[in-house]
Amino acid sequence: MTKSRLEQKIREANEAGRKALIPYLPAGYPDKERFWKELSALDKSGADIIEIGVPFSDPVADGPVVERASLQCLEAGVTLDWILAELKKRKGGFKAGIVLMGYYNPFYKYGLDRLAADAAEAGVTGFIVPDLPMEESEDMTKALAARGLDLIPLVGLNTSEERMKLYADNARGYVYFVSVLGTTGERTSLPEEIAGRLAVAKRVFDVPLALGFGISRPEQLTTFGDTIDAVVFGSSLIKHLDQGGDSAGFMARWK
Amino acid sequence: MQMLKKGYFGDFGGRFVPELLMPPLIELEEAMGRIMPSPIFQQELGRIMADFVGRPTPLYHCQGLSEMLGRNIWLKREDLAHTGAHKVNNTMGQALLAKHMGKPRLIAETGAGQHGVATATAAAMLGLECVVYMGSIDVKRQSHNVRRMKLLGAEVRPVESGTKTLKDAINAALRDWIAEQRTTHYCLGSVTGAHPFPLLVRDLQAVIGREAKRQFMEKMGGKLPYMIVACVGGGSNAIGAFHEFVPHGEVRLVGVEAAGTGELGCYHSATLTKGEHGVLHGALTKLLQDKHGQVEPSHSVAAGLDYPGVGPEHAGLQAAGRAEYYCVNDTQALNAFQVLCRTEGIIPALESSHALAWVLDNAESIPRGEHVIINLSGRGDKDLDIIEEVLGI
Fold it and tell me: Which of A110, A128, A119, A114 is nearest to A172 (CA)?
């Protein structure tokens, strides 16, 4: 199997001596038009991969900032059909890898084979589905693999080495390491046990490790050294936009 | 990978949760297998059920209703269990399990408030801390139960997100559990959610059907009833009533959902009757959703039925043709509520009134003289504010 484009993007950043940057923005945020401008700005300002949130009515793993943003997008009429159609129009327009992140039901309802076909045609490279642990992921993994798309696994502080090994068997793209026992959202400090768990994950996985949930400042990453290859930020980007900032300004602080 | 899949009832069930919740679910599954069958646990639970909960609850033959309908109507009186509903069967079991697991804190979500009261009761009785999540709309319409929970020492946290009802309270409780799983047991209130919850809650509620079967057979010289009827929101009282009878194919199992106002285009809670396959709160089940897979708001005059999902085992029983599911609207339920009050001297919960309404309105489809057991899942004291408002009594 060829190397994943997402993995390549992260390795290229690492070879340039930096962590890969993965911003997350819910599709249609802050509004349906400006979203695409912000996406281009993120792409031009150094994003290696962009995670586009697919809004869902019941986002169990999200904190208040992402939840509010997602529900606002739903009210504005954002749907998976709209996201894929708009992405298709812009196919080839982004340097960054494009990943769709969303809860399982809208994907399931869309139909997994149809989803994989349409996503590939729209230039999507991978999916993150927070409520799809490995026990339930076989159907989606198969459908995506048939179109060369990755299903990015999530692991966390309480994931045993045994479970990580099971995830490692099928991991492609990168692994999303959830930094806190909690929902998405900025934290003033990260739990001390992260370093130890990241070291285990680093040993188990061949694909790159991306750290996400609760990350808002580059200083938070200094203690992790080479154990992490990429960093994901969502809530802090949404807040930055809410406060009148733009994507380019946000990305500048990470360079 | 197939071997890893667990907790399916036919095509329905599973564990669709964030990876962070897999370790506590696996821990709970392990504890169910190790702790619950042990004689110490069973003796303790048996004692609590008899002396604290008040089991067995009676199986009551309704003289007035039976004469009125020409069919023998029996009520399994879960309204007489401590706290006034079947919910306590589940919460006492789960709270005791949590205590044996060394978890000092219980969280729960509640719609009508009965599960919240039952969890707060179990926590108080066993010396556990208790936090209850409740949609802010439900906090208002079930204020009586909110006051009860507070008296029992529980903290009630109103949930302002989404539709501000049960489904949002579940989201909030799941988030709490993700963060506090090391000290906390999530005392889930119905046969919904990720494996092993549908099994755990069913096994704790199955006492309803076991007792009903024994009581009926004792009274009727070994005969089985023609039909068991129960209301279905998440579906715990119905599964509890059905489970013992599932192997007896000659006994009809009827679940009754809430059709809301019954008007075209209005929200309702008739998931099995009108929903489609979907994933919510950890299980693949039948779900009220739009064409994009977004969960639709639900509605019922009975807050305890107001939920867009349903326990996956019900979806499995329906698909297998073993149980039948119908729906009745708010008006039918309110009518049945009044009928039971006046003919039998029993004030039923609006949830249970749905089961009763189906029997009243469909009695002609039941052979004359046959025996029907309706699970009277709870008492209606909690609904008096709604009743006063809607019926102007």
Answer: A128
DSSP for B286-304 reads: EE-B-TTSPBPP---SSGG
Most A CBs within 10 Å, among B6, B8, B12, B19, to test the A interface: B19
> ∠ CA B194-B241-B79 to the nearest 5 degrees?
105
Residue A182: list chain B partners with CB under 8 A: 175, 178-179
As a 3-state breakdown, chain B gives helix, strand, coil percent values, each rounded to 5, of: 50, 20, 30
Q: Tell me, rounded to whole angstroms, the distance of Cα B364 from its chain centroid.
A: 27
Which residues contact residue A16 at a Cβ distance below 8 angstroms, ignoring those fewer than 6 apart? none
> What's the confidence (pLDDT) of residue A1?
61
Residue A170 in contact with residue A142, Cβ under 8 Å? no
More confident residue, A187 or A49: A49
Please give the Cα distance from A180 to B365 (Å, whole number): 57
User: Of the residues A38, A62, A67, A229, which is catalytic?
Assistant: A62
Angle between helices B114-126 and B87-101 (to 10 degrees): 40
Q: For helices B87-101 and B22-34, what crossing angle results, to 10°?
A: 100
Q: Are B375 and B355 in contact (CB under 8 A)?
A: yes
Q: Which tokens hold the place of A86?
A: 């708009």
User: What is the helix (H) or strand (E) element at residue A12, kind and residue range?
Assistant: helix A5-15
Flag if B20 and A105 touch (Cβ within 8 Å): no
Reading the block at residue A186, the tokens are 């900025």
β-sheet with A175-178: strand ranges across: A150-151, A126-128, A97-102, A49-54, A20-26, A230-233, A209-212, A175-178, A154-156
Whether residues B19 and A67 touch (CB distance < 8 A) is answered with: no
Whether the model clears a pTM of 0.90, i.e. scores above it, the answer is yes
Dist. CA B94–CA B92, nearest whole Å: 6
pLDDT (0 to 100) of residue B3: 59
DSSP H or E run through B157: strand B155-159
Query: Tokens representing B242?
Result: 């059905």
Beta carbons of B326 and B366 less than 8 angstroms apart: no
> What's the gap in Å between the CA of B179 and the closest CA on chain A?
4
Return d(Cα B173, Cα B171) in angstroms, integer: 5
Q: Does B157 touch chain A (CB under 8 A)?
A: no
Residue B379, classed as helix, strand or coil, is strand
Q: Is A150 a catalytic residue?
A: no
Separation of alpha carbons B326 and B215, rounded Å? 27
Contact of B120 with B147, CB cutoff 8 Å: no
B200 touches chain A (CB under 8 A): no
Q: Burial-class residue A83 by CB neighbours within 10 Å (0-12, 13-18, 19+).
A: buried
pLDDT confidence band for B40 (50 / 70 / 90): very high
Tell if the CB–CB gap between B17 and A133 is shorter than 8 Å: yes
Question: Is a pLDDT exceeding 60 seen at residue B11?
Answer: yes
Q: Given a cut of 60, is residue B1 above it in pLDDT?
A: no
User: Which tokens belong to B213?
Assistant: 């079967």
**CA distance linking residue B184 with residue B134, whole number of Å:** 18
